[in-house]
Amino acid sequence: MTIFNNINRANKLGEIPGLVPVPFSNVVINDKFWAPRLANLRNVTLPLMFNQMQEANYFNAAQRGWKRGMKPTPFVFWETDITKWLEAASYSLRTHPDSSLEAMLNQAIDFLVSLQQPDGYLNLYFTEVEPEKRWTNLRDWHELYCAGHLIEAGVAHFETTGKRTLLDPVCRYADYIDSVFGPAPGQRRGYDGHEEIELALVKLYRVTGEGRYLNLARFFVEERGRQPHFFDIEAWERGEDPANFWQTGYEYNQSHQPVLEQSEIVGHAVRAVYLYSAVADLAKEYNNETVFDTCLTLWNHLSSKRIYITGGIGPSAHNEGFTKDYDLPNLTAYAETCAATGLVFWSHRMLQLDPNSRYADIIERALYNGILSGISLDGSAYFYENPLASKGTHHRQKWYKCACCPPNLARLFMSLGQYIYSVKGDTQLQVHLYIQNEVNLQLGGRAVTVRQLTDYPWDGTIRLEIEPQEPAEFELLLRIPGWCKRAALRLNHEELNLEIQKGYARVNRRWQKGDFVELVLDMPVRRQYSNPAVEENIQRVAITRGPLVYCLETADTNIPLNFISLSDTANLTSRYDPTILGGIAVIEGEFMVIQTQDWEDQLYRSEPPTRTSFNFKAIPYYAWDNREAGEMQVWLRTNRT
Ligand code: FUB
Ligand code: ZN
User: Closest ligand to 145 CA?
Assistant: First the structure.
């Protein structure tokens, strides 16, 4: 009996498969916020990343006959920087052909393909450095994780170019993996310590139609956490005591329980969100409610108790992951860029299965805050950790020894267009994100162009122009973001009553050329408070406006941020300032500052410190650390007056 023993039964999940994302190749983003950023990513960041990898000797690492001690020593999962970069570059080329980027991509593919062994095996480290250790430590050594990113790259490259130069080697490797792992006698009943291959195999199945890849994805998920425990067996085989695992338990890699019995999000954050992305894929492919419910329980746990206001997840550096409910420290927040990126992957899958604005709210929160902070405004440096406070020593770096985050962020942003819309057949168009763009679709049996016009995230007015070739009937669903407390909707100037369905305002009609809808989302400056269980945020307040979380930075003052507080009533206003940080809406108002001059030499005294007011400004969190080094705070002290 398998863990997913109901998986093939008629345990139907409502109407899925129903919603599908509109591919980013159909969507032309032409706004003032994202379009220049995406152009910079294509023209500056992707070539820079390639250079970084060249300079770090990635492509020289495959020296046949490599001997211990020779330099460079490939990092155990080095090639995943290359394969994630390849995925990002493939996405970029899909919408913006570029011969020089294509040349880099081909060089990377040639390098990877040159590593393939006669049996199909394809891994840099375990080919060049320690071939005798192939498949001996799945718990720690990322072999299947590397395979997963390679597969994703192969699929992306094929979908862009139609070429099989990477896809064929990838399929050979996947076939080989399929022969090694599985339930049959002589096969290994194993899985990787770092999930990733599972979701990649689903992608490979979707592009090739080969059911064995889907079965293998399912096998890896089903095996995870079963007894006898694979990582115990594997450790004994290496002559090690599994009790000596360098992490405190199998929660670290989500193998502490069979996956369908898990109800709390634990362990390494990136691993968790990659695993549950795959589980959501399986829920869809097998149309299975039990599998979906597991995902929902876990997603709800994460989004209600273990997420930062920025969409960052995984507070602890110790396990790069989760600790306990409401443990969300600011200064030491790990909140890895990759983890928030993976959360978007997972939430996007959930959104297609369960069209509810809560998933798009989290996608938006992470995109505009905890992920966008991961890259400098000029596109040349990256955060690995995204803390919510800094004493001035945390800065983006040009590259990392473990450079997982930069290419991860790139592959997300290079496919940003796919997060904006979903369709249900040709009867429904759902708008999840407000980003100015133009998209071509088939709706109501007609070709329809939809133009979204907006100055989001600085302004909450969105105009959607609907241009069907011929009149076409379909339903339009517009997300009312969770942050918005008042919205108005007009159709061709006529006010509509808001008919909200799972967080989306619904307009059903036979659309004609010239029709337009205007959605006005009230976007005032807001204060946000934490559940008091978040100890660090007691008597603290955060400032938000629309999807953006704001912060204070000492680049705007010479006062230590701990001396600054904000009353619960001070008026805060927003003003667009085109002159700083690439153009941002700053939030200004009267803050209070503790006076230090009247303390003279006293260490203690019976009168509280005096405060005076001063005008100060907050900037969007994503834009911090782009000026001179200094302190930063998202959660500010509050004061009464
Ligand atoms: O282990 C591979 C990647 O490196 C993880 O996803 C990140 O957390 C970083 O540890
Ligand atoms: Zn990372």
Answer: 1
Torsion over CA: 469, 471, 472, 477 (sign): positive
Ligand 1 atom closest to the CA of 274, numbered from 1: 6
| C-alpha 80 – ligand 2 centre gap (Å) | 11
Question: How far is the C-alpha of 592 from the C-alpha of 588, rounded, in Å?
Answer: 13
Contact call for residues 201 and 217 (beta carbons, < 8 A)? yes
Q: What is the pLDDT of residues 223-274, one digit of tens each?
A: 999 999 999 999 999 999 999 999 989 999 999 999 999 999 999 999 999 9
Tokens in use for 535? 């100890």
Atom of ligand 1 nearest to the CA of 194: 1
Q: The tokens of 307 are what? A: 């997420």
- Three-state DSSP at 105 gives helix
Closest listed residue to residue 85, CA positions, set 124, 53, 62: 53
pLDDT in tens, 476-508: 999 999 999 999 999 999 999 999 999 999 999
- Cis peptide bond upstream of 97, omega within 30: no
pTM: 0.97
Cβ atoms of 310 and 386 closer than 8 Å: yes
SS3 state of residue 468 = strand
Strands 461-468, 504-511: pairing is unpaired
For residues 44 and 379, what is the distance between their CA atoms, to the nearest angstrom? 7
> Nearest C-alpha to atom 4 of ligand 1 is from which residue?
404
Q: Report which ligand 1 atom has the smallest distance to the Cα of 268.
A: 8
CA 366 to each of CA 87, 223, 362, 548, 574: distance values in angstroms, whole numbers, following the listed order: 21, 31, 6, 10, 22
Please name the residues in contact with 119: beta carbons below 8 A apart, sequence gap of 6 or more.
176
Coil vs helix vs strand at 94: helix
Can you tell me the distance from the alpha carbon of 332 to that of 152, in angstroms, rounded to the nearest whole number? 32
| Cα 335 to middle of ligand 2, angstroms | 10
The whole-angstrom distance between residue 93's C-alpha and the CA centroid of its chain comes to: 21
Q: How far is the CA of 457 from the centre of ligand 2 (A)?
A: 26
3-class secondary-structure state, position 474? strand
The tens digit of pLDDT for each residue in 556-602 reads 999 999 999 999 999 999 999 999 999 999 999 999 999 999 998 99
**Amino acid code (one letter) for 517:** V
Mean pLDDT over the full length of the chain: 95
